[in-house]
Specification:
122 residues, alpha+beta, six-stranded mixed beta sheet, two-stranded antiparallel ribbon
């Protein structure tokens, strides 16, 4: 499945701290950053007369203690997805929680946070 292919591509990034959906609540106090959360946002299917195609939308959230760390890990995600011959990806963009800048410091945690989104297919 495409979800496993994507996980295999990014699982070694951020020191292996890659979590489906969210960093587990019980690990929030002890997690070492940077860390990546990833999820499938939607899974539209395109039907043709010959076959159907899946092209799910993936979101990757990078959390880091410094700007440089955040930028480095976000760049590594893009490179890992880009250089996988088994995947085809359309980079939608990068944003932050309030869409005003490409990254921000989360007020409640003091962490830098960047969100990346892609459509992908195999």
């Amino acid at each position: 499945m495409i979800e496993q292919t994507v996980y295999n591509q990014i699982s070694s990034l951020a020191g292996g701290r890659v979590y489906p959906y969210r960093i587990p609540e019980e690990e929030l106090a002890t997690v070492v950053y940077p860390a990546i959360e990833y999820r499938v946002l939607g899974d539209p299917v395109l039907q043709t007369q010959e076959k159907s195609f899946r092209h799910p939308r993936f979101r990757f959230e990078v959390w880091a203690t410094s700007w440089d760390e955040m930028v480095t890990v976000a760049s590594q995600i893009i490179a890992a997805i880009d250089h996988n011959s088994a995947l085809h990806a359309l980079f939608i963009g990068e944003t932050d929680i309030d869409d005003r800048r490409t990254a921000q410091v989360a007020v409640d945690t003091g962490l830098f946070h960047r969100v990346l989104e892609f459509y992908m297919w195999e």
